[in-house]
Amino acid sequence: MAVLILKNGKTWYRRGFGMADTAKKLPITPLSLFNIASVSKQFTAAGTILLALRGKLGLDDDVRRYIPELPRYGKPIRIHHLMWHTSGLRSFEAVMWVAGMDFERTGRREVLDLLARQKHLNHPTGEKEIYCNSGYFLLHLIIERVSGMRFEDFMRENVFLPVGMNQTWVRDRRDFSPPGLVNNYVRTADGKLHAGPKGGWSALNAAGGSEVITNVDDLGRWLEVLRKRSVFGARFHREMHHRGRLNNGKRIDYASGLFVSKVQGMLSIGHGGGLPGFLTIAGRLPSVGAAFVALANTDAINAGYVASMLADLAVKGKCGDIPCPWKNDASKKAPVPADKRLERFRGAFRQVGAGDERFAVVPEGNRLKAYGNWGTLNIKPAGTYRFVRALEKDGSEYYFDFASDGTPSGIREYKEDKLLKRFRAVAVPGRVDRKAVVSRAGRYRSDELGAVYTVRPSRWGIAVSYPQRDRIVRLVDDVRRECHPLDLKGREFINGQRRITFRVDRRGRARGMTISTPQGRVSRMDFRRID
To answer: Most buried residue among 205, 226, 402, 499 by CB atoms closer than 10 A?
Structure first.
């Protein structure tokens, strides 16, 4: 990992540690180059704003003015919706994952064609903020079509070089490998590290939202431009930091490729990024004149720990040797044998009162996994009925309650001895309609994806299979992982990667299903039964 901390524009800490290439034993230095993943978004936003300031486009323009290939969804999607993640578009990488497409062989034209086939939005435009890589993919196309230049050339000529970021490029092909580019290492389902493709996931389809190659020094120069409002002027600075609004007028915590939020009670402006084999963070704490960058060539570290560690060091003004961040990451450990005593906690739970949060709790090794719309939460035993978060230290505690027959009846979530939420059990083993589960077996096709899923009953719920063509996805995700029931009638199932809801006729036969992914990046992708 390479780290840079600036205080009032001056270098306060600058160091590289770890290996850029384990086989050749090449060390990481501050000059080492990394794919900075989603930290790239602020540069795409910057290029778009520069074109707007030059009168080449308007941030309120209808996106279809520049990309007529997109369907009409009713209310126009405008350029600022793309920048603020409020467009409602499905995130293309999640759509590709659901479709089983090969990330390394799918080009930008195919991604645009895929987006053009999407008949529905995740939500009405402007109603919600849901992180969406499709928006920044489309912004890179708009920059190309408006400027008449290749996106890579426009960004280098108009954004990077004026700032003095001479060691920064947009990666536009898989074999792009400037001197100093680190290897990357992916933590797979078996707990081992594997070397990923040189430069990262895919240069063929991720432009705009990812694929900027740079080092900590050049990112430090960029953060100084944002701090001093230099090079591009005050109007540019205002647009970069202008937080978006929803249709109801509510301000969101996202600006132009930048999160604007609070850390330790202070204003924090920045962004993180992650790809298989890369994890990146770049941010500023304006009230103390601090900026920090951390670039890692493995995704097997705790991102939240790195961010809080750097912020803490910058604020306290004490900087000894920065500890190795993956020492605090329990996910690095190899799988452990299952603790059969945890089986009694298995079940599905639904929030009591306000909200409709639902999740399934599943034993795995010596801990529990909770699968919900937000993804996967790991909790570990801290007592007979008490559990705490395994990979985060946020103070949350979870207490399980049991019925007289020994099955779980609910969960109470506490933080600092304050009751936050209650959940009641809605499905436990032995009570789910097994006949209904078995009847879900069959083949289902999505016309929007051209993909066919096969569903079969499994021990606890259902298992789905489909042709997953991407080797990285196959490494980091077990696509055969079973889905666990969220209700007694066998209509909804979930795991860490997908939530499946079946459409059932009056006789109880499944006629189709929808698939949604965590964090809402794909919502209700429709499949019809074909057998």
So the answer is: 205
